[in-house]
Amino acid sequence: MGKVVSLNISDKRGTEKKQVVSVNAIEGFGIEGDAHAGDWDKQVSLLSIEALDKVPIDKIEEVEKGGFTENITVSGISLHEQNVGSLVRIGEAIIKILHIGKEEYKEYGRPYIVSREGRFGIVIKGGKINIGDSVEIISEDTFL
User: Fold this and answer.
1) What is the DSSP letter of 102?
2) Architecture of domain 2-143 in this structure
3) Which is it for strands 44-48 and 30-31: parallel, antiparallel or unpaired?
4) pLDDT tens by residue, the chain, 144 residues
5) Residue extents of the structural domains in the chain
6) What is the pTM of this model?
7) Which residues does 44 contact at the CB level (< 8 Å), separation at least 6?
């Protein structure tokens, strides 16, 4: 089982997100107060700290110093478990992963790794998420 290490929102797309201690995930909408929320397939972004292992040595300092560009940063969940179609219980909420990475890779800062290894999806069960909450991959049977 993993845990939430950071929660981040921004009120404008394309800007770094500010860290907050808790968020409200709204079913079918995304993270309350975040510019990416809405009726589409990338309502929420998720990045596992473990993805930093995939950053080339010449980019790691830049990536680590960059501001947050993902909504939820987690640790302790294997990237191999976070596949398209996976359900992730984070605090009270459940996120369904629909995309891995973005169509176009970014070459600078934290977006470098988020654009390659970030998970993007929708909120299928709303609820509160706090820093320190547990994170786990669940089966559809568990959710239903």
Assistant:
1) -
2) Beta Barrel (2.40)
3) unpaired
4) 999 999 999 999 988 999 999 999 999 999 999 999 999 999 999 999 999 999 999 999 999 998 999 999 999 999 989 999 999 999 999 999 999 999 999 999 999 999 999 999 999 999 999 999 999 999 887 766
5) 2-143
6) 0.95
7) 25, 30, 31, 36, 71, 72, 95, 120, 121, 122, 123
